[in-house]
Every structure is written in C-alpha cells, then in structure tokens.
Amino acid sequence: MHSAYISHPACLKHDMGSIHPECPARLRAIEDQLISTGLMHFLNHQDAPRVTDEQLLRVHPQSYLDWVREQAPVSGLAYLDGDTAMCPDTLEAAYRAAGAVVRAVDMVMKGEVENAFCAIRPPGHHAESARAMGFCIFNNVAVGVKHAIAAYGLERIAIADFDVHHGNGTEQIFHDDPRVMLCSTFQHPFYPHCGADSGNEHIINVPLPGGSDGPAFRDAVEKHWLPALERFQPQMIFVSAGFDAHWEDDMGQFKLRESDYVWVTNQLKKIAVKYAHERIVSVLEGGYELHALGRSVVAHVKALSEL
Ligand SMILES: [Zn+2]
C-alpha cells in the first residue's frame, strides 16, 4: 500500500475540558471524513506504539520527562502552561502520539509505504526541548526526525510546517542543527510571537500578515521553501500538518482552502520524488474548525496517497 494511517485510541482520551479547542472530536472529524469519502479503505492502518524513553531523550532532557510525569494528575486537570493541560489519560496519548511518528519513520524507511499520515494528539510543534506550551507536550515531529537520524543515519531532513502558528519548539530544537531544514509559513504578528526575526540558512521562516490567502501562501512557498529545498536535497520530508490556516478556522486569520493543501502537498511530493525516495511523514498539528479539518485532512491524505 502507498500510504499509512497511524493513530491510537488513547489519543481520543486526552481531554482538556469541554470548551478547549484541541479536543478529541478533532480526530473523530478526520476519521468521519476519511470513512465517508472512501479514502480510509485505501490506507494501511497502524496502531501507534508507545514511544520509548530512549526515543524521547533524543529531543527532551530527562529532567523534563520527569517533570511531565510528576504533573500527570490522578483526577481532574493539571496545567503545564496557560492553555496546555494534562488529564489522567494525557500521558498515554502523548506517548502514542510521539510513537506514531517513530512508527511512521520505520515504515517509510523500510519501504513498507511511501508516506504516512499520523492522526494524533496532543500536537507537538510548540513543544520546546524542556517546555510544554500551546497545547503541545512532546515535539512529535522532532522525535521522528531524531529517530530517522539515529536509527537510519540520514544526514539531511526537511520539515515543512504550514500550521497558521510558528512552530517555535521545532525551531528551538533544530536551530543549531544544519542536518535539519525547517520551512515554515505562519501568521505574524501572532502566537507564539516569534520566528519573524530568527532563522538562519536552514531555518526558512516566512511570516505572513493576517488575511493572507491561498495565492499569498503559494507565492511564499514558491519563493522561499522550494528553492531552499532544492538546494538542501532532503533525504526525507516531515510535514507539520496544521490545518488552522483554513479560511473557516477562526483560530487564525489565514484564508487557505483544501486546494491549497493539495497544492503544497504535491509540491512536497515532487521534492520527495526527486531527492528522498518519495519518503514523507506527515503529522497532525493544529486545525480546530471540525468540518474544515476533516475535509482538509482528506485533501492532504488523498494527495499523499495518489501515485
Ligand atoms: Zn496552530
């Protein structure tokens, strides 16, 4: 099969309260759309394993893992920052979320599939090496990238992040690691209020104003991401696939549509075919308007799975 779909029932049990936008219904909305469009039938389904401590420790220090485990409540919610909480089931969800990306890397590197989509939560791109924030606890994509380097010896890995928010955690983790290129578009000024004046030759930050639409996004990708990726020649591509830049999603003020997600997915596929043996691992980040999220993931996964 061409594409894997990796998730775990534990990811539905992480629940930060009925009014929190990062809610279990997000994964149900995605699965509903994959089922109703018939796409689910064509994907190679895998249950995410638990990430191991060895895999987490490539990104997060032992002191941070100890701290997160100490915060885990027996009942109710424990807040790690103003908008990131743990319920009693959160730790298991977080282990499976990071484990999904490790499994995706293994499947793609062994040639079992060309690419994989990880339908997981909590998301990861705001999590720094020793700081939970912005609904994120472990940086799932970073754990996958470090696994691809440690277990398979890859030397050039690209991350493309089209979430409406800047992936500050991913930038912090890889800012001084030239083996990893981060290509990011994000609304600025906006949470987490960074990324516009950082970056270097392997951190390609493209801040865009609120109100930016599909043509503006595509222009940014064509002008900034694609030349950098052509220069870098990645051996594998990760996608921090946040869908909160959708025009129906009022978490941010971008105006992307499903066709824009198809377009950017196809651009990344072209780079992957050219340099990376088609290897793409895509990982869910944001996306909070449930209808738009479901349709956008279907558009993205359909583009990934087409030959
Ligand atoms: Zn976001």
Q: Which terms would index this structure?
A:
alpha/beta; binds zinc ion; 307 residues; eight-stranded parallel beta sheet; Arginase, Chain A; two-stranded antiparallel sheet
Brief summary:
The chain is of the alpha/beta class and 307 residues long. It contains nine helices and ten strands.
Q: How does this model look, in words?
A:
With 307 residues, the protein is α/β, with parallel strands linked by helices. It has a single domain (3-305), classed as Arginase, Chain A, CATH 3.40.800.20. Helix content is 39%, strand content 16%. The protein is built from nine helices and ten strands. The strands form two sheets. Strands 2-1-5-10-9-6-7-8 form an eight-stranded parallel beta sheet, with helices on both faces. The termini are close together. It binds zinc ion. Zinc ion binds at residues 163-165, 242, 244, 285-286.
Strand content: 15-25%
Q: How many strand segments?
A: 10
The biggest beta sheet reads: 8 strands, parallel
- The residue fraction in helices comes out at 25-40%
Uncertain segments are none
What structural class is derived from the secondary structure elements? alpha/beta
CATH superfamily: Histone deacetylase domain
- Spatial shape: globular
List the ligand species. Answer: zinc ion
Report the end-to-end length measured between terminal Cα atoms.
11 Å
